[in-house]
Write a structure and sequence with these properties.
- This protein is of the alpha/beta class and about 625 residues long.
- The protein folds into 3 domains: about 240 residues, 4-Layer Sandwich (Glutamine Phosphoribosylpyrophosphate, subunit 1, domain 1); about 190 residues, Glucose-6-phosphate isomerase like protein, domain 1 (Rossmann fold, 3-Layer(aba) Sandwich), CATH 3.40.50.10490; about 150 residues, Glucose-6-phosphate isomerase like protein, domain 1 (Rossmann fold, 3-Layer(aba) Sandwich), CATH 3.40.50.
- The chain contains 20 helices and 26 strands.
- Strands 3-2-4-1-10-9-11-14 form an 8-stranded antiparallel sheet. Strands 5-6-7-8-12-13 form a 6-stranded antiparallel sheet, with helices on one face. It has a 5-stranded parallel sheet with strand order 18-17-19-20-21, sandwiched between helices.
- The longest helix is centred in the last third of the chain and has 21 residues.
- Bound molecules: 5-amino-5-deoxy-1-O-phosphono-D-mannitol.
């Protein structure tokens, strides 16, 4: 949540910062702002709404402004208005700050600073940071502070460190000081911060998408670290002033991968990228000749995984739905007792973590605050914690003991699509490998591996029905309450279908196990209520036909996701979408496709901003 960026280099900062902000806009879009520094003056422009609104009020870029910071906001403290937009400056106008995170003790600090005659103009926690740095800076400059800056340290950096020592909570920060026209400072605790190292230029940003246009070389700051950047280079240290050396990494993805290409929206692009994303995710991991799955990142943990009697999967949102499928897979194929936990609930309910408990954290972004906190909690209690993450070098990837990357490519659309199917592919590969070691024959593992390899091509076939699915969305677009129903491995897919529709079209939708309908929710059915059933061929096929009949008898409009060639389902369906045949446990990678496409078209038909749904942001880095 919130995108931050800073630039120091040879070029005019403003266009670079605005371009970078646009690449970060999926992180939040309530307001945006920019601060540039030249001739000892910090110039701030900010506006409520999307970055396009900010652009309307900007002056022409100046070549004198080669240093600046910028921000796109997902509001936490204070309404999304112009006053609360970042950057925030201190009361003297010397310091400017952009911030991603939450300062928990902001109220106490604000009271204290106010008692020192420091003025505040916004409702944000971030203004406290700016004023705190400004306070220490003016103290040290006037010689009032008892703890003077060490002789070899500049006063700006020292003031930042003094302020950071007082903060409780999380931050990714980029900071300017008017008296230091060639210095940019960044600091990180609990929110991501990456420094892109280019030829004579540096870009500090909350994620790599803002950097790749300029350089693919980057350092990833760790918690409680800061970086001070000047035209001569940069130095990294802990926030209590101990030097740390950082490794230069290669950012894995290219600019092309984060461009929208010919698609109307990132979500649509990412839906259509799924065949390729899955091929990349599984390529090199599936050894069809020997019927083996190779998961390099987990190699040294596979023995522990086969022995565990307690596997916990933690995640949020779409990744939680993938985890539910994972639970069924691990229990079915490997007979490992598995629980799926909302990461946001996990550490607040005193969960049982014993000697051999293994926890797997699943996250596209690798930055979701709840999932990260759950991983840290499990680690503190002695569990082995593994990760299934898409973003390389992200906080969860670095916190876990080991893990598997999705390699699905960058996901920009707020609605998660290709990450979901890639999470399912990774969970399936892991379950097959553990199953082969524990419970199923080599022949059975081989059959599943064959079937898994065929999934990308089967997805391509489903994608061809996009126009047909659009017609179904259009026929039901006026309906404000939808149900998504599935059984067995397709029950989590029903939850995911409902989430997709809700988050981008703002249509109320519920996902349920189909058989639960008669225990209450069936009361919601009235004439024409759209009910999307996943009724593919599998062990529960006959049962779900019964559930469909119950809803149909009460006037529900039946939309069925069925198996190709299933003639008998036609009599039950008002609308039919088909998927190629596949074993039940692999079906979620197929059955979710029609639901993603349906949600996409419904949102477009309703005129919603598909990639930037209201109130949401791509990665939820606050609890
Ligand atoms: O980055 P993560 O996978 O940890 O994100 C978890 C959820 O915030 C995310 O899946 C969210 O529910 C999506 N908007 C769903 O489309």
């Amino acid at each position: 949540m919130c995108g931050i960026v800073g630039y120091l280099g040879r070029k005019a900062a403003q266009p670079i910062l605005i371009e970078a902000l646009k690449r970060l806009e999926y992180r939040g879009y309530d307001s945006a702002g920019i601060a540039t520094l030249s001739d000892g003056v910090i110039k701030i422009k900010k506006e409520q709404g999307k970055i396009s609104k900010l652009e309307e009020i900007l002056d022409a870029p100046s070549n004198d402004e080669k240093l600046g910071i910028a921000h796109t906001r997902w509001a936490t403290h204070g309404k999304p208005n112009q006053l609360n937009a970042h950057p925030h400056s201190d009361w003297t106008g010397k310091i400017a700050v952009v911030h991603n995170g939450i300062i928990e003790n902001h109220a106490t600090l604000k009271t204290w600073l106010s008692s020192k005659a420091v003025d505040f103009v916004s409702e944000t926690d971030t203004e406290v940071i700016a004023n705190l740095i400004g306070y220490f800076y003016s103290e040290v400059n006037s010689g009032k502070d008892h703890t003077q800056a060490p002789p070899d340290q500049n006063k700006f950096e020292w003031s930042v460190q003094r302020a950071l020592a007082e903060l409780h909570g999380t931050y990714g920060l980029a900071i300017l000081c008017a008296d230091f026209p060639k210095m940019l400072i960044g600091a990180k605790k609990g929110s991501p911060l990456i420094l892109g190292v280019g030829e004579g230029e540096y870009i500090l940003a909350s994620d790599a998408a803002a950097i790749v246009e300029h350089t693919q070389k980057a350092i990833y700051l760790s918690n409680n670290e800061m970086v001070t950047i000047t035209p001569d280079g940069f130095n990294t240290k802990t926030i209590d002033n101990v030097a740390v050396s950082k490794e230069l990494h290669q950012i894995e993805f290219s600019l092309e991968q984060i461009e929208i290409g010919g698609f109307a929206h990132y979500m649509l692009k990412e839906i259509f990228e799924q065949p390729e994303a899955l091929k990349t995710c599984m390529g090199g991991r599936i050894d069809r000749q020997n019927n083996r799955i190779k998961l390099g990142g987990l190699a040294s943990y596979l023995r522990e995984l086969t022995r565990t009697k307690h596997l916990i999967l933690t995640a949020c949102g779409t990744a939680f739905h993938a985890s539910l499928v994972g639970e069924f897979l691990f229990e079915h194929l490997a007979r490992i007792p598995t629980e799926t936990e909302y990461a946001s609930e996990f550490r607040y309910r005193n969960p049982i973590i014993e000697d051999q408990t293994v926890v797997i954290s699943i996250s596209q972004s690798g930055e979701t605050a709840d999932t990260l906190a759950a991983a840290e909690y499990a680690k503190e209690r002695g569990a082995t914690v593994l990760g299934i993450v898409n973003v390389v070098g992200s906080s969860i990837a670095r916190t876990t003991d080991a893990g598997i990357y999705l390699h699905a490519g960058p996901e920009i659309g707020v609605a998660s699509t290709k990450a979901f199917t890639a999470q399912l592919a990774v969970l399936t590969m892991l379950a097959i490998e553990l199953g082969r070691r524990k419970n199923i024959s080599d022949t059975e593992a081989g059959r599943l591996i064959e079937e898994l390899s065929a999934i990308p091509e089967k997805i391509s076939r489903i994608l061809k029905q996009s126009e047909h699915i659009k017609e179904i969305a259009s026929a039901n677009i006026k309906k404000n309450n939808w149900l998504f129903l599935g059984r067995g491995f397709n029950y989590p897919v029903a939850l995911e279908g409902a989430l997709k529709l809700k988050e981008i079209s703002y249509i109320h939708a519920e996902g349920l196990p189909a058989a639960e309908m008669k225990h209450g929710p069936i009361a919601l059915i009235s004439n024409g209520t759209p009910a999307v059933f996943i009724a593919t061929l599998g062990p529960q096929y006959d049962k779900i036909l019964g559930n469909i009949s119950e809803v149909r008898a009460r006037g529900g409009k039946i939309i069925v996701v069925a198996t190709e060639g299933d003639e008998s389902i036609k009599q039950y369906a008002d609308h039919l979408i088909t998927i190629p045949e596949a074993p039940e446990m692999l079906q979620p990678m197929l059955t979710v496709l029609p639901l993603q496409i349906l949600a996409y078209h419904a949102a477009v038909l309703r005129g919603k901003d598909v990639d930037k749904p209201r109130n949401l942001a791509k990665s939820v880095t606050v609890e």
